[in-house]
Amino acid sequence: MRIKTSNGVIINVDKPKNSITVEGVEFGSDCRALVSKHRNGTGTITLVFEGKII
Q: 37 phi and psi, to 5 degrees?
């Protein structure tokens, strides 16, 4: 799924490759994406980062 936000940021989630890219920056295995498509042509991507609070 590829979304262009209201601020113009492009977020790309490639599920087969396990790849999440935000403005050209690719996130590694510590990040997951929950993706949902809506009937009106919009969508929601929720990024979940795993780690310790520092």
A: -105, 140
